[in-house]
Design brief:
Elements lengths: L1 H12 L6 H15 L9 H9 L7 H9 L10 H25 L5 H8 L5 E6 L2 E6 L15 H15 L9 H13 L4 H5 L1 H16 L1
Antiparallel strand pairs: 1-2
Amino acid sequence: MDEENEIQDLRLCKKNILTEEEALLVFKRICRQLDHKDNLFLDLNQLKLYCYNGYCNKYLRPKYWKLFLGYFPKNKFKYDHFIKSRRKHYKFYYENAIRQKNIKLLCDRIINNDIDRTILFPFTVKENNVEKIHCKFLDSDNSSLNFSSSHRDSIKRILLTYKITNSSIGYVQGMNMILIPIYYVMINSIDEEDRLYAEEDSFFCFYNLMAEIG
């Protein structure tokens, strides 16, 4: 039975267009592979093929990004412990970054300047008879966040934490434009856990990506 499923999976992951029935089957198989409580083997190459052929949605996209950016442990059955540990580490790194920030004044000035002038999905608001441009995404609130209600603040925190944690590299202008798409995918997931830990998970995905870029 498993061999038949593997053959069927191989056939489906090479198809560009799936029927509704096939799409549901694929979704279930992918979810089983990603589920650390399911004994189905996680086949990275197969998932890459599905992704390459465009099989994705708001639930799977954050999972794909975490997986392909090296945030998932190699052994999926250690996922629960691994992720909890990483998320705790982020809080530790961030608290350390705040301590360093208080010692090294203005160490986040460039980050703040970059993020404050970043505008995505702009809209105009009139304040005291003066029109100001706001960012529909970064300036929006989200009460599900662990740290703050501002997405813009989350981006600043991640970059400050990265800069302090990686002092040899620090912050380079433009890193914000690499981080924002990662964070956007996490915070717009339909999975509540992805949204709740969007900041922590985005930090490590960004960290791994920057390490790969070198």
